[in-house]
Amino acid sequence: xxxxxxxxxxxxxxxxxxxxxxxxxxxxxxxxxxxxxxxxxxxxxxxxxxxxxxxxxxxxxxxxxxxxxxxxxxxxxxxxxxxxxxxxxxxxxxxxxxxxxxxxxxxxxxxxxxxxxxxxxxxxxxxxx
Length: 129
Prior knowledge:
mainly alpha; 2 domains; 5 helices; DUF2304 domain-containing protein; transmembrane helix
């Protein structure tokens, strides 16, 4: 078997699948995202093993140049992923603001009931809550 782009894509998708499973096993990737990446890696592996799937799908969608369909799907996936991550970051940012406000209110209550802690805050120490 000669070394060509199909063999390279099979190797890349296999390595990507192994890295994804390793990240899940070490708990560096949350389960809610791991399923999506495992599916993407499996799909890449299947398409790499059988490139005629891309040509068949391109004929169904009346795409004249089959590799451009892969580019289009990759671009759409990147846009959807970016939108999803933006929503997640927005929610997390809102939670951080809410938690910061709660901590400030709790510190204010602690200072009000225990004036001794004010001296600790003036020296840079964090008061015990």
